[in-house]
Fold these 4 entries.
Entry 1:
Amino acid sequence: MPAKNTRKQYAADSYYHLYNRGVELRTIFVDMQDYRVFMSYLKTYLLPKDTVLLQSIISDQEKNWREKDRAIKLLRLNNFTDSVDLIAYCLMPNHFHLLIKQHDATAIDRFMNSLCTRFTMYFNRKYKRVGTLFQGVYKAVLVESDEQLLHLSRYIHRNPLDLASQGEALRNLRDYLNSSYSVYLENSNHKDVKWLHPEYILHSFSSSGVNSYQSFVEQKEVDEQAEYLIDDLKMDET
């Protein structure tokens, strides 16, 4: 029997929870550089590509070969600005979560194959290893309602609490640097994250108080019906 969420239902203009973990549960983000590289890949795939600037660098006689080589690589790189909107993310030591909206039915597969292949190449080169990094193909599950969408974002942003339960220091969720939660709280360090689209979620909440997104995420209890609502959207534990 196939593992949970390996059979994917692709549909245009739809929301998905995408996730994967390291093969044999291995750590895939060993240090902060690894987190930053993964997020830099998200940025380059999701921000509009400035082809005019890149072409001008390539044709500029005063630019050195390194600058030109980088411009050529960026020019050739896949770009998903018009086909994928990243709504929320959380990178954990041995797995990641992405919440996206795809605008055409083939966007997810192309985006995830590019992202995971590129990060695996970086990781293997850095740590002098060969072979697969992730536990099979990425998992994808279709979000079927607005209510599911909101509670799934809460689930993703609360993932770092597992680190606290394992004894690692975490004063509060906004302190975790490797998720989109601080963007949702308008952290000054993330105001330029134009490749993220929290508006899909935040329009359902007030800016402060008991009806704010922060209150929604950080409340310790959530009703059982809401938990049941997203049970099939969560990462499988096997």
Entry 2:
Amino acid sequence: MFYLHLNQVDWVGKHYYGVEPSEFHRGRMRPNDFNFMKTFMEAQSYITQFNPLNPKTTEITHNLDKFRAPFVGHPGNYVDIYSDVFGITDPEVKRSLRDTPWLTVPEPKFYEGRTVVINRTGRWLPSNISPKWNEWKAMRIDEKAFFVGLPEEYKAFQQATGWFKVPCQPTETLLDMAEYIAGSESFIGNQSVALALAIGLGHPHIYCEVRRDLPKERNECYFPDNPRISYF
């Protein structure tokens, strides 16, 4: 049974990090975010219920916010942090948790004539764009690609890359987004919920644009043992 504590992101930022959340997080995890997530969460075989949390009536056995205290400065990704805070120390078990898919979708969706799905958020990379996008454009990858994400992300992506031939596929729910990612042959994106979906789904070809204000190994999305992910 999975519970989401609504309207807590601003408190989390102040409590754990001593600052207001970034503009990308401020005020999030509202009821509309819960509704966006609901069908996807309930599609996972190991989640029997997905509900808003009432902390006065529901006892929590595994508080997934436990990763936050050691998060800053941790030399690994989120999966490693969760292993550490929940007492999983065996190296082989930790490696298998990093590399074994943990998400599924009932039915992949396909964009006719396009096999590369893209999501690029403004977080970390508003202008410092990798030259790899120009290389792929020269290879006409943009003619095989479609975008999933918010309208403002789509507009910023086109302006940053010049990939104006790429259409945007609306996704009403997180499940919609996951199904289009599952139905693609390649995923290209930066640190985002879409990238997390691709990694969790075990997507076979992921190209991750890392943030460049940190060493690559400090990126939360860095999975060095995963042969399905390439970084640029």
Entry 3:
Amino acid sequence: MSTPAQELIRHLEKNIGGIVFGAGRLVEDLAITLIARGHVLLEGPPGVGKTLLARCFAQLLGGSFQRVQCTPDLMPADLTGVNIWRADSGRFEWLPGPLFADVVLVDELNRTGPKTQSALLEAMEERTITVDRERHTLPSDFLVVATQNPHEFEGTFPLPESQLDRFLMRVCIQNPAPAIEVEVLRAYDRGDRARETRVAELTPLAADQLTAARVQAADLHVSEALYQYVTGIAAASRAHPKIAFGLSTRGALALMRCARAAAAIDGAAYVTPDHVKRVVASVVEHRLQPTPDALLEGESSEQLCAAIVASVPIPRGDTPS
């Protein structure tokens, strides 16, 4: 018998798989992010389907949707909203920005400047926005799906550590294999109408379907040894001589929540170290900041993350008593 989390991921695979070819593991990461109630960062070169994947994800979630195309001249008020003086009524009127939606696609986030990027910090962490000393509440299931180009691309601004730490997972999208690329050409070479029609026809998730998957993940058993394992990974990242900024407590919590979601998708009764290792790359790599010396030596956050995980002893006999 299928669990709610397994039914959820099957729904995503069935709908997204017919539009974004070769999405496989990407869909699983998106499902984990959704169950764990986090925001997701899609990274990859231009033209590999990041925006299309984000639009499909937003369509499947239902609710209100807004898209923001980031540019160097984008201002914080373009995201949050602004108070405008109305002479006819003699008072200010609040005009909410695109962040006041259930799902917000922020396209090419690292093409806008740090000042505008910072407008997302409060929204992503607290689901509120403060403008002119007045606090506005965002939807309870507010979700940011952001895309970014690799940092070595022209015209990009690196995301600060505080911004990266607010993304539960980073999902990397590479150029497709030749066989997958042939499927893309065959499906879409006649124009965009077929693609747009497919996106519009996606079947949104039922509200109780997502709630049930989240309840399932929250009810899973987690042993004390597994908590120690996750905190051990966080401690090892902070003590590593080639890492300037290790995993924060928020990052360790994200790792635990994603491991719960992965276990729920497996239909497991408890969370194991294998579930942690399955999600660790997507949760931890973008949170690690290598030292300048490490960068000069060609060491990446991906390599350092793998070394950290390998250095932490795996708890044995980690089953519920």
Entry 4:
Amino acid sequence: MAKPRFVLLQARNPGDPAREAEHIAFAARMGVAPETLTPVDILTTPLVPATLDGADGVLVGGAGQYSVLDDLPAIAEFCDFLADTASSGVPMFASCFGFQALVLGLGGEVICAEDRAEVGTYMLKTTASASEDPVFGALPDAFSAQLGHKDQASVLPSCLEHLASSDKTVYQAFRVRGQPTWATQFHPELTWRENQDRFRRYMPEYGKLFGEAAAQAQLDAHFPSPDANLLLARFFAHCFAGETP
């Protein structure tokens, strides 16, 4: 049987080292070879149905300097494309920027909430619905995860099943009801060390957002997130291997 192939949708500027690091991280957490993921830059590539030709699944990563609230035609197109993909039956897992884009594309609301920004490692809680979910069902009631966001969903569309929350962010994960589509505000593709590396890359921005001393303290406070880091492997096993690890 041929190995499943994936499209990885990204919104990152040329030269951003997180572009390749994200590619490698998604592949590593799913347990697949990096060459089975084809990166697509949503900022320069028109998103049409043919974008997914040859792909068995879709992954959506972060966005570096971009927000789903930016008034850019490419981002509006991206939100609509994800909503259409979510109803197509193609397995999809989206993190952070992709999570927010799905919320908007499916009719929800996203706000900028700098006072509730989460950058680093945080504790999250599962909802009652998570226990019955094939991907989230093995998570403990409380688990650690890697985060890096200041935008967050404020209204979740009714077609989404709420799966996790944190003290600062009510909506941390969801599944599209009846579809093999999951999304997380957090980053299950990143280990704590990888999230530290990303934090360092954006330290000037975080220094402005939190203050330099607080940003350094957050950098130093990262810790492992083993349960969250298994979610992509569970997604792969459930959708492409007919099992849940």
